[in-house]
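Please fill in the sequence for the structure shown.

STRUCTURE ENCODING:
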């Protein structure tokens, strides 16, 4: 059974004091005893990675990064390599978040290089895919997500998947930060499609083991209905991850949605 994965993407929010305070709180307060089988990560701004790593090191919390560059070192002013992130204790790196696609104009080719670099450094890539509101209205969800997956996962081999180095985040752009989340059955439908695409690339068995998480206005009060869909394996949480009780509520919902098999 796939382990639920709940990650809090802090985006460009919080300061050093508030970030370390939140991370300390999350590290020492499990959502509930029942939530111990949920994998939890925080994804702070890169400047706070080392400080957050210090407070969560040795606890159940894992550390993620919001972005990376694909080269190991060199003349790439302002960029940070995956190696450097790993040195800070990072285990997960987002690639292709919609804000990077749409605000920073990142294209699938660049995103794919990042995914490959993350995997090459033995970290886990969280590849984010999702359609805009206009694309959904034009019934292009499957086309758009299919293309993002095919291009984003080019040259990624089965071994990476077998080693659990790939998570897919389905994040419909129209649901991110809007307070309008996808209906549980809408999310499930796209997650099934994503798993079918993964099966074409990596085979049925490996595709069945890949975590596909949902992101887009997930809150403590709507998480359970989404997370109890059979192909929704967790959540990538933005706004609600900045509030400890909200985030822990989502972790708790994930634990209830997929209880530990005895
Ligand atoms: C995100 O940034 O990945 C996200 C899902 O944001 P929010 O939860 O605020 O919609």
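FILLED IN BY: designer on duty
SEQUENCE:
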């Amino acid at each position: 059974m796939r382990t639920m994965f709940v990650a809090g993407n802090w985006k460009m929010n919080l300061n050093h004091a508030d970030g370390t305070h939140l991370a300390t709180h999350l590290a020492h307060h499990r959502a509930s005893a029942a939530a111990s089988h949920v994998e939890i990560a925080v994804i702070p701004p890169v400047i706070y990675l080392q400080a957050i790593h210090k407070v969560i090191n040795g606890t159940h919390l894992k550390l993620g990064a919001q972005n990376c560059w694909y080269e190991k070192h060199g003349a790439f002013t302002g960029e940070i390599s995956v190696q450097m992130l790993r040195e800070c204790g990072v285990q997960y790196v987002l690639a292709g978040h919609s804000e990077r696609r749409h605000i920073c104009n990142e294209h699938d080719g660049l995103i794919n290089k990042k995914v490959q670099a993350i995997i090459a450094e033995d970290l886990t890539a969280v590849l984010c895919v999702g359609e805009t509101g206009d694309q959904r209205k034009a019934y292009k969800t499957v086309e758009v997500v299919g293309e993002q997956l095919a291009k984003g996962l080019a040259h990624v081999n089965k071994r990476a998947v077998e080693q659990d180095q790939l998570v897919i985040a389905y994040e419909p752009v129209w649901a991110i930060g809007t307070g309008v989340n996808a209906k549980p059955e809408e999310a499930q439908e796209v997650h099934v499609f994503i798993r079918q695409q993964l099966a074409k690339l990596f085979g049925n068995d490996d595709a069945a083991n890949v975590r596909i998480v949902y992101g887009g206005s997930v809150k403590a009060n709507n998480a359970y209905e989404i997370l109890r869909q059979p192909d929704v394996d967790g959540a990538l949480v933005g706004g609600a991850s900045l509030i400890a009780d909200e985030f822990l509520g989502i972790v708790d919902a994930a634990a209830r949605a997929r209880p530990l098999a005895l």
